[in-house]
Specification:
- This protein has helices at about 35-40, 50-60, 90-100, 110-125, 140-145, 160-170, 220-230, 235-245, 250-255, 260-265, 270-295, 310-320, 335-345, and strands spanning about 5-10, 15-20, 25-30, 70-75, 85-90, 125-130, 180-185, 190-195, 200-205, 300-305, 325-330, 355.
- By secondary structure, the chain is α/β, with parallel strands linked by helices.
- The strands form 2 sheets. The chain has a 7-stranded mixed β-sheet with strand order 3-2-1-4-6-5-12, sandwiched between helices.
Length: about 350
């Protein structure tokens, strides 16, 4: 019998969910949450039951029979550093989320595993999470930043990165465990990754450095940054917004949509053209650095994320990095599909299920 899997992806103002028959969506939906309603609940973890009830109500309206489900999977959050893979949601994880001491950030993705357990528990079926934001397989050399007070942290778009890595391996006709690749996830934040024989041995944390993106400033000149921080003109929250929400494309052009910027450039806007060229330049430079981390042994370069829908971005990266090998593009970030494929890899014996400890 074909397996039915419910995937749950909590975000800042919505919870996306979908039922998949094997790897094909039966339906997908998103329930909205008013910011003021979420704020009234207090700590983020308090949102688990209300979000769960809304999802269950939406499934009920569709007439979906929960008893037909094989498994439930939720997005993995900013947990403690973990190896890539598919994990069972266990009591230890839920206790750590509730305690909060091992979480690296307060983020809606932390609700994915509790939501999956809340649905799966009464049904007597397993709940999973897959490739959380905190996947950490960095080498020892990659962790040193230049000062012991500031170790590099591995926080990335691991869920989508791993899915497209598997897709690239399928296209190349070889198992992922035998391949080296550079994967560029290009969204509002950018994660450029070195994958050695299936392991993510290095990545840039989009909040801490790397290329600038549509909203994030990326790596910045240290001395100039210190001057800004101690100028007395800004509070910490203002600086966080400036560099993480209003940096990059937004700071230079006042927009955060790459397609719009590319259109402006095509119509002769010199500032837009320079910004797009600079963004592509940084993508290529970071990709080259990750190729160097792989000692130049690169089987393919993979471009993914929302910006991969833009032909100028993909063409620019292809021109800059094709000397490394074949460049493949998988536009968008299909997180629900990625969650389901992670569960299927375990159910099909491609990967062993991992235990959170």
């Amino acid at each position: 019998m074909e397996r039915l899997i419910l995937a749950l992806n909590p975000g800042g103002t919505s919870t996306k969910f979908g039922v998949y028959r094997e790897a094909e969506p039966v339906f997908e939906e998103s329930v909205r949450h008013l910011p003021e309603e979420l704020a009234a609940l207090g700590p983020t973890l308090n949102q688990t039951r209300p979000r769960c009830d809304l999802v269950l109500s939406a499934l009920s309206r569709r007439g979906f029979d929960l008893s037909t489900l094989t498994a439930v999977v939720g997005r993995g959050g900013t947990f403690k550093p973990l190896e890539a893979g598919t994990y069972l949601v266990n009591d230890r994880l839920l206790e750590d989320i509730a305690d909060g001491s091992t979480l690296q950030a307060d983020h809606p993705s932390n609700l994915g595993a509790p939501l999956a357990r809340a649905v799966a528990g009464p049904l007597g079926i397993p709940a999973y999470f897959v490739d959380p934001v905190s996947v950490d397989e960095m080498t020892e050399e990659a962790r040193l930043s230049g000062h012991p007070l500031l170790p590099r942290k591995s926080l990335s778009h691991a869920l989508n990165i791993r899915m497209v890595a598997y897709k690239a391996a399928l296209e190349l006709g070889r198992p992922l465990r035998d391949l080296n690749m550079v994967v560029l996830h290009l969204g509002s934040g950018v994660s450029v990754n070195a994958i050695r024989r299936g392991r993510m041995i290095d990545t840039n944390n989009a909040n801490d450095g790397g290329p600038f993106s549509s909203q994030r400033a990326g790596s910045l000149p240290v001395t100039g940054l210190m001057d800004i921080c101690f100028s007395g003109e800004y509070q910490k929250k203002q600086l966080q917004r400036m560099f993480l929400k209003e940096g990059g494309l937004m700071a230079y052009l006042g927009i955060d949509h790459v397609g719009e910027a590319a259109e402006r450039a095509a119509k002769g806007d010199a500032a837009a053209d320079l910004t797009i060229r600079s963004m592509i330049y940084q993508f290529v430079k970071e990709g080259g650095a990750m190729a160097a981390a792989l000692h130049g042994e690169v089987d393919c370069v993979v471009v993914t994320g929302g910006m991969a829908h833009n032909s100028r971005i993909v063409e620019g990266i292809t021109e800059g990095l094709s000397f490394l090998g074949r460049v493949l593009s998988f536009p968008g970030e299909a997180e629900l599909e990625a969650l389901v494929r992670g569960v299927l890899r375990v159910l099909d014996g491609v990967e062993e299920v991992r235990e959170y400890r």
